[in-house]
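Title: Prediction job returns without error message
Component: structure pipeline
Severity: low
Priority: P3
Assignee: unassigned

Description:
Job completed but the reporter wants confirmation the result is attached to the right record. Sequence as submitted:
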Amino acid sequence: MSDLVTGEDGLARPVWAASDPLLREYYDTEWGMPVRDERGLFERLSLEAFQSGLSWATILRKRPAFRAAFADFDPDAVAAFDDDDVTRLMADAGIVRNRRKVDATIANARATVALRADGGLPAFVWSFQPADTPRPRFSAEVPTTSPGSVALARALKARGFRHVGPTTMFALMEAVGIVDTHLVGSHRRASSGVWPDC
């Protein structure tokens, strides 16, 4: 028994990535691949925060609108957003209109810019890469937090980041390749190059 589904292309994927074409494309090409640039990490951090309480498919479908609304997630541009921008964002039906998450994204852009003085967001986030990665065979074995995500959340909050709880940060770590939670047997397992022997 397995939580993997073999598609018509002969490739094994978890159930969540097996049927929706958008999720399948995301799983096959992006999820779990290393993201080491500031803008890329700021975007993933922002989208993970917006996803909290919603489905990832919803966020992916709105991703183009998010990019347009948040200046393609350029931290300098978002850090300069003012009250007029918040009003604009809260009127934008293309994104998730949650004031707390909008405010957090702007605050996180400012914190990202400030973090450059200490090596920058990528080096900071990747410094929490653990010594080992999970090896789940079934979806129920995939953790939702880890000691690393707890520590990352605490460290980011101390730097002024918001909406960065341990569960959201574990999802970020999965999405950007810091840990590999592809199910054993998936065609994507160990494909990132970060965990070649897992």
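Comment from assignee: result matches the submitted record. The beta strands are 4-6, 12-14.
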